[in-house]
Amino acid sequence: MTVPDAARLLDAHEWGGAHPFEWNARTGKAVASPGFRALFGIEEEAELTQAMIRARVHRADLDAFDAGTTRLLAGG
């Protein structure tokens, strides 16, 4: 089995209703699929940051989000 190229993998995510993103916890920078950006109202040209993602987390989930971020950064 061959590994699909990035474009095909992104298409598969989009067709399946998944909206992937990748976040670098050390730099705070992120990249996201067009579907993710559309779902969260983030313009395609806008620089995506952890702060932008955090601002879209439901208030009830913020403590868990922040704790997970802290654990991630502490773990190297």
Which structural class matches the secondary elements?
alpha+beta
The quaternary structure here is: single chain
- Helix count equals 4
Which range does the strand content fall in? 5-15%
What would the average pLDDT be, to the nearest integer? Answer: 82
Instruction: Tell me the series of helices and strands, N- to C-terminal.
Output: HEEHEHH
Shape: globular
Strand order of the main beta sheet, please?
1-2-3
Instruction: Write down how many β-strands occur, each being a DSSP E stretch of 2 or more residues.
Output: 3
Q: Rg to the nearest angstrom?
A: 14 Å
Helix content class: 40-55%
Ends: how far apart?
32 Å
- Give a short account of the largest sheet: 3 strands, antiparallel
As residue ranges, the low-confidence spans are none
